[in-house]
Structure formats: structure tokens, C-alpha cells
Amino acid sequence: MNNIKQNLRREIEHIFRVQNTEISKLKNLGGSNHVYSFTVKNQKYVIKKLSDKSIMDWNREKAAYNSLKSFNLTDELVYFDNGIKIAKFLENGKALSYDEADMIDALNLMRKVHESGVSIKHDYDIIGNMNKYITHCNKKSKRLSELESYRDKIDSIQTMINKLNIPRVFCHGDACSTTNLFRLPDGSIKIIDWEYAGMADPLLDIVIATLHQGFENVDPVWCLHQYLKRAPDEQEYLRLYSFLALNSYALMAWCIYGDPGNYGYYLNSAIKYGNLVLNC
Question: Which residue in 120, 129, 150, 157 has the most C-beta neighbors within 10 A?
């Protein structure tokens, strides 16, 4: 950890052209990447460097920020190059909660992103992400063997989704309201951390947000209704359940690779929604 802080300090010195003594309050903000807040010349910033565990390419996030410049939806970048992102800290920003009003605001904002017309060259590839995690997993893991035993079901669900040929739109890829969406004092909401951004079925963002926030906190069917502003049709339910299953399998791989605590939760979700889809 000290090496990480030292490396980040050197990056800050170089980027801001300041002495080490001019950098204060360097604080780890947690998460799976190296994310720290710091202060230079009375201005607070956030610096992020992807960790060795990350499967993402930092160019994806840079492309997302560049494409969204005119929409005023993100935190304000001051530097993004060589795998280092620095943005102004969202002073007095408050993460959205699970309550109904905040969730509706989050869904409305994600709809705005989906309807923005923004396009980047990256796709959000659920199975591709899962396979990237698997390549780094312990090949002798019993959990990995268990995940691989579902490969036929995963392929069947993916094939079913591909046949629907849903137009792809720009998606955040990790639109969890309680970690990546912040309300500012003026009432506006900013979305941070776009490293998973890519072109995908818009329902993917609904599913990922639901999975990360927990079914005990957020009901995916309720979210779908709110997002669509109407009752879903059969195909939309099928897409919702399919993405819930596929992303649960992908997150099982993530748990085997780096965060074992939630494996059972994602396994139960994968089985539940996978059976719903395949038994339709």
C-alpha cells in the first residue's frame, strides 16, 4: 500500500508540477482499483489508477468521458493519460440511496445516457468479461469447476439474447446508485467511474445496478417498470432475466478471482434467473 501511495504521489507531483510537500490529505477511498482523494493548492481531487486485478482498459473510460463532455453528466476531469485519471472531487456530493425517489432519479438519468446518441468503439461483453476473470482464477478451484459446469446454460442464454438483435446504446456498465451516482447541493446528479462503459442493450445497466445493490434493496422488476414508464412486454422480461443470469455468472467469476464473499449470492441469482429464462 505504501508503494501505491508513493507512486501516486510521484504522479501528482509530475502532473501538477508541485513538490511532495504541497500534496496533502492523500486518502484511500476504497474499491477494487487504486482510488485516492488528495488536496493541492486548496483544491480537492480524486486520482485513480486501475489495479492489477482490473480486466478493463483505461482507454475505454477515457473514450466515455470524451464522448460525454457536452452533456454535463460526469465529474470534471483535469487529467487522463498513461493510465492515470484525475478529476475534481465532488464537494458536498452525496451518493444516492436505495429509496424510491433516488432510484427513480437514477433510472431517469441512465435513460438520458442511453438516449444521448453517444457511441464508442467498445462493447460491454458479459461473457468476454467472465472469461477474462476465469483466465486469472485458480484452475484447481472447486468454485471454478462449478461455474464451468453451467457453461452450456450460459451459452444457451447468450444465444437466445443474440437472436433478439436488440440495438446497442451507450451504457455505463456499473450504474450502482449508491456508489457511482452523486447528488450535488444544486440538485444535479453526476455519474462517476466509467471504466466499464460500452455499447450494449440498455437493460444491461438496470440489471448490473440491481445485482450490485442487492435484491433485498432493489427489485429488478420494479426498476424495469420505472425505466420503461410502462408495463414491460414478454421480450423485455426475457432480456431482464437473461442479463440477470448472465451477469450473475460473470460476477461468480469475479468472486472466484478477487472477492469471494458474495459468491453464494451470485450463484443463487444465476440459478434462479437462468431457470426462469430456459424454462420459458
Answer: 157
Each domain of the chain, given as residue ranges in start order, spans: 2-88, 94-278
**Helices (H), ranges, the chain:** 2-16, 58-67, 100-114, 126-136, 142-148, 151-164, 177-180, 203-213, 220-228, 234-257, 263-278
Residue 206 neighbours by CB distance under 10 Å: 27
Query: Which tens digits make up the pLDDT trace of 64-92?
Result: 999 999 999 999 999 999 889 999 999 99
Q: Which amino acid is at 162?
A: N
* Closest residue by Cα to residue 242 from 214, 209, 269, 263: 269
Query: What three-state secondary structure class fits 168?
Result: coil
The DSSP annotation for 76-101 comes to: -EEEEETTEEEEE--TT-EE--SSHH
Q: Using only C-alpha atoms, what is the Rg of the chain?
A: 19
pTM of the predicted model as reported, rounded to 2 decimal places: 0.91
Determine which helix (DSSP H) or strand (DSSP E) holds 30, and give its type and residue range: none
Distance CA 191, CA 209 (A): 13
Q: What is the pLDDT of residues 1-42, one digit of tens each?
A: 578 899 999 999 999 999 999 999 999 998 778 999 999 999
Q: Provide the β-strand partners of residue 40.
A: 23, 43
**Which of these CATH numbers, 2.30.29.30, 3.40.50.720, 3.30.200.20, 3.40.50.150, describes 2-88?**
3.30.200.20
